[in-house]
Amino acid sequence: MTWREYHDATKHSVESLRGARNGLDWANMPDPFRHYEGVPVLDLPAGPPCPDTPALDVLRGVAGSTPAREGGEFLSQLLFYSAAISAVKRVSFGGQTYALRVNPSSGNLHPTEFHFRTRGLKDWTDGLYHYRPSSHMAEQRARGDFTAEPLEFVLTSIAWREAWKYRSRAYRYCLLDMGHAWQALALAARAMGCEAVATGSFPDHDVAQSCRLPEDEWPLLLVSICGNAIPRDAAETVWYGGEANRLSDEIVPYPLIDGIHEATCLRAVMPSSSARPFGEVARTRRSAVDYQGGSLTMSREQLATILDAATRPLAADFAAEPFVQLCLYVHRVAGLEPGLYRHGRESGELELVQAGDQRTAAAGLSLGQDMAGNACVAFSMIADLERATRAHGDRGYRYAHFEAGAIGHRLYLAAEALGLRGTGIGAFYDDAVHRYLNLTPEQGQVVYHFALGHPAPDNRLI
Ligand SMILES: Cc1cc2nc3c(=O)[nH]c(=O)nc-3n(C[C@H](O)[C@H](O)[C@H](O)COP(=O)(O)O)c2cc1C
Question: Mean pLDDT in the chain?
Fold first, then answer.
């Protein structure tokens, strides 16, 4: 099968939804948590400290730091701020509750699993591990040499978790969720002073085999974490404490020289319009279930800051050229006329394509979900799937969706940092969006929708 056949076969339209089988088989609902039974389960130290670099700075590329001195502490902090349970919600009817995590997921079904391989982490046995979010612990699946890196994540996806609800379209959701999980991990790593580099090009079956993955779990992305902040056993930095010699008895001060030098120094920390720490933003990020419509606006500066944070270059072997462009349905942004806009990926500028109220269109195109009309701004993410697959073969189909998910995750965090909220929207009428935006398939196809604004209260959150 080609990516095109799959993509066309999984488009939503009024007709396809009318013909779809309704209802979910609750008795057969997949467990949201995978456990590898019968292996040692290791504690990750509780209550890891909050990475306190402002979230907007982290999104702009500023690195934070970590007090972790041991491998277990480091892993605990990294996973607590990227993949752990972060809230509990009540089911609409009845007294049951369910868990929400730091990384968002379509239908909260969480197809993504976090495996990691370690080498030389301080006081942590080299081997292969699986993260158990239900108890914030690490399942030790094997000991030994699995990687040349100090820490490498193997992010896998269990398509069945999503297919239970979304049927064949579920693969798209898995890819988008993967983009979110990647950025959740990469940004938490940066907030702790590390960098994360993603690799999408690898032999799938070899990686699956090396991790002894069960058949229903597929590796989709490898993410290496590197940097001196990782506590290591070997190759520690050793200072010999040499002291610089004094060049003359007296040093005459020249304030002008000191002044010009100070004025021309570069500072690592950039100005930010929000000081909310990364750790707080990552763990309080939630999807708005609806937005306060009415006249409440967001500012043009807020939108510019969010767009800038969301479209920064991504560190991955497939991300040298971006494939995703944003179209905006601007409803209520102070100083910006309501209308349909195109975002220039290189220039960062917004180009007005069509003036006028877009609320009905945005909600209608998003499968009638009101939130896309009540938000301050809604998005269609348009991927150049033809170019992505010309550059990377069918694999490019995955990469374009990873990129859209990554942009979505960065939209979520930047909005949260500024006191707003976002919602990923995987359900939209594909070809109706193309018609509305005047797009031919060669110009791009819609892969993801998103909404941003002032959230309506969600009284199901506990
Ligand atoms: C790829 C993706 C698609 C989503 N699609 C929708 C959607 O169509 N409608 C909706 O209300 N929420 C959607 N969501 C939001 C999820 O329902 C939400 O992430 C999940 O319930 C977990 O809640 P949280 O984000 O607050 O952790 C989507 C999220 C993702 C990541």
Answer: 93
pTM: 0.89
Nearest Cα residue to atom 6 of ligand 1: 425
Query: Is residue 454 within 8 Å of 376, Cβ to Cβ?
Result: yes
Ligand 1 is surrounded, with C-beta below 6 A, by 100-101, 104-108, 173, 176-177, 180, 286-287, 369, 423-427
Other beta carbons within 10 angstroms of residue 43's beta carbon come to 11
Is the alpha carbon torsion for 318, 322, 323, 326 positive or negative?
positive
Token readout for 182 is 């990647």
Give the CA radius of gyration of the chain.
23
Q: What does the alpha-carbon distance between residue 249 and residue 334 come to, in Å, rounded to a whole number? A: 62
Give 37-83 pLDDT, tens digit per residue.
Answer: 999 999 999 999 999 999 999 999 999 999 999 999 999 999 999 99
- The protein residue whose alpha carbon is closest to atom 16 in ligand 1 is 106
Task: Please report the beta strands in 272-401, taking only residues with DSSP state E, as ranges in sequence order.
Answer: 298-299, 324-330, 333-334, 339-343, 350-355, 377-383
| Tokens (6 digits) for 166 | 């979304």
- Select from 165, 134, 138, 132 the least CA-distant residue to 151: 138
Kindly report the protein residue whose alpha carbon is nearest to atom 27 of ligand 1.
104
Q: Please give the domain boundaries of the chain with CATH numbers for all domains.
A: 30-226 (3.40.109.10), 289-453 (3.40.109.10)
At 83-103, the pLDDT tens digits run: 999 999 998 777 789 999 999
Q: Which of 172, 128, 191 is nearest to 424 (CA)?
A: 172
CA of 299 to the centre of ligand 1 (A): 25
- DSSP, res 456: P
The distance from CA 105 to its chain's CA centroid, rounded to whole angstroms, is: 10
